[in-house]
């Protein structure tokens, strides 16, 4: 069953026809997304097509002859605002992954690990994530236009007499009749939420003292029903010949609905649509904050766990993608129960999860959490009336002096997770420097073998 009624137009930028055919066939093999795929094979053709044709998603190969996929992004898709971009590559490269993230690329996929389900999930996540961000931008733009034409609740403050005129509409927005509110300025400031009052007073003072061009503030105000409403107040002062403010007037708009919508959109942009867990972006931000705290506080450390669900592809293939999604939701719920207050569980995509553990004294605390997770997941899951058993392989790493980049810790935990899988699944492994060196050696060996093939350096003996 398709997850979206509309037909997605996908542009594949790929200089290898065999890889194009493979990607096209992967898209055709999945049945959850309606799409049509256009293909261009060169950097120049990509720039021309992107400038002249609208696409919903861009799949861009990293290697494009003398250019790279990132060159395409810089030249034709700055900030990836037009549509989400997914980078495809034949081999993992952390530096490329990091640069792609900085350019706004939504995902970074290894070709040899792709299957129809993984590709569909990545496109679905990228498309919905981009749509949530676009709706947030549209909401902000619509509000800006509305504010310029609105004339909601007028207020006029006589600073010399310290009296304020509040229009009927101003009073009605807060649930009051005209005769229920006096001309005392405290009728306004006294209704401002205590947590916002200092900020409002500061903005007013800054404008009256000439340190800002106008007064503007978003704050909560007490309604007659006892609740609070979000208000947007703006105004400008009138000054005498000496520059002293004698009067300030403006208007107030009720932005409660917009605030609620923005909070929903921000939540959607920073959380996984399937499980409701924080997504990759929010996890990276929280990890970055924790690492900055560790730089300031010598006694603070954090740990990262990278989890991959074992045998998940078997569940997907045998019970279907909808059942697989329901299983992922159930796994996410159990993971959340295993964490301490202040820790973060996130879904990176597919069947991969990460966990940030705050204030760990040593790696044994992270190991105990990993063991608690494996115990919790050892119980069966009930999916569509069937008992399903899954486990996770967990990679563990902890922050150390000199660790400043969030992606470094995630990469280390990822490497350790593969070590845990190699040891037999349903277990955990703690990262050490030898694991990183071994991963680098494997990457260098793969690169050398590829170069050897290109240079015809192999000889076959019978």
Q: If classified by CATH, what would the architecture of the largest domain be?
A: 2-Layer Sandwich
- Please tally the helical runs, counting DSSP H or I stretches of 4 or more residues: 15
First-last Cα distance: 51 Å
Query: How many strands in all?
Result: 19
| Structural classification | alpha/beta
**Overall pLDDT metric:** 88
Unreliable residue runs: none
What is the level 1 CATH name of the largest domain?
Answer: Alpha Beta
Our Rg estimate from Cα atoms comes to 28 Å
Describe this structure in words.
The protein has 462 residues and is an alpha/beta fold. The protein folds into three domains: 8-127, 3-Layer(aba) Sandwich (Rossmann fold), CATH 3.40.50; 150-260, Beta-Lactamase; 271-431, Alpha-Beta Plaits, CATH 3.30.70.270. Helix content is 45%, strand content 23%. The protein has 15 helices and 19 strands. The strands form five sheets. It has a five-stranded parallel beta sheet with strand order 2-1-3-6-7, with helices on both faces. The chain has a five-stranded antiparallel beta sheet with strand order 9-8-12-11-10. A hairpin with a 5-residue loop joins strand 10 and strand 11. Helix 2 runs parallel beside helix 3 and helix 11 packs antiparallel against helix 12 (321-337). The protein is globular. 31% of the residues are buried. The mean pLDDT is 88.
């Amino acid at each position: 069953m398709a997850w979206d009624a509309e037909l997605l137009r996908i542009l594949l930028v790929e200089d290898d026809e065999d890889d194009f055919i493979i990607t096209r066939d992967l898209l055709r093999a999945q049945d959850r997304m309606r799409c049509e795929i256009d293909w261009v094979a060169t950097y120049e053709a990509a720039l021309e097509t992107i400038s002249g044709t609208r696409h919903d998603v861009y799949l861009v190969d990293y290697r494009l002859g003398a250019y790279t996929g990132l060159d395409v992004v810089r030249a034709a898709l700055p900030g990836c605002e037009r549509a989400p971009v997914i980078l495809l590559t034949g081999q993992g490269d952390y530096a490329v992954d990091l640069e792609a993230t900085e350019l706004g690329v939504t995902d970074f996929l290894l070709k040899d690990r792709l299957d129809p389900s993984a590709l569909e999930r990545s496109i679905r996540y990228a498309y919905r994530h981009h749509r949530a961000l676009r709706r947030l931008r549209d909401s902000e733009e619509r509000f800006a236009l509305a504010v310029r034409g609105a004339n909601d609740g007028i207020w006029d403050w006589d600073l010399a007499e310290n009296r304020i005129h509040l229009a009927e509409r101003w009073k009605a927005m807060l649930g009051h009749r005209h005769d229920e509110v006096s001309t005392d300025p405290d009728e306004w400031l006294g209704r401002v939420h205590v947590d916002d009052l200092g900020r409002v007073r500061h903005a007013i003072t800054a404008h009256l003292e000439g340190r800002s061009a106008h007064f503007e503030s978003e704050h909560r105000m007490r309604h007659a029903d006892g609740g609070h409403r979000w208000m947007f107040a703006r105004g400008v002062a009138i000054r005498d010949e000496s520059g002293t403010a004698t009067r300030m007037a403006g208007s107030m708009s009720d932005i409660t609905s917009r605030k609620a919508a923005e909070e929903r959109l921000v939540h959607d942009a920073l959380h996984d649509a399937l499980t409701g867990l924080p997504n990759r972006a929010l996890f990276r931000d929280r990890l970055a904050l924790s690492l900055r705290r560790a730089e300031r506080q010598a006694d603070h450390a954090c740990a990262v766990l990278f989890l991959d669900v074992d045998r998940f592809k078997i569940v997907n293939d045998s019970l279907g993608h909808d059942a697989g999604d329901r299983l992922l939701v159930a796994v996410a719920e159990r993971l959340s129960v295993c964490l301490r207050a202040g820790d973060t569980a996130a879904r990176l995509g597919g069947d991969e999860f990460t966990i940030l553990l705050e204030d760990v004294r040593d790696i044994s605390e992270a190991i105990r959490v990993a063991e608690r997770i494996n115990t919790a997941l050892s119980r069966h899951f009930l999916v569509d009336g069937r008992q399903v058993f899954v486990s996770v392989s967990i990679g563990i790493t902890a922050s150390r002096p000199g660790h400043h980049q969030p992606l470094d810790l995630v990469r280390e935990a990822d490497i350790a997770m593969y070590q845990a899988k190699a040891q037999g699944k349903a277990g955990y492994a703690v990262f050490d420097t030898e694991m990183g060196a071994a991963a680098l050696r494997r990457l260098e060996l793969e690169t050398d073998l590829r170069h050897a093939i290109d240079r015809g350096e192999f000889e076959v003996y019978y």
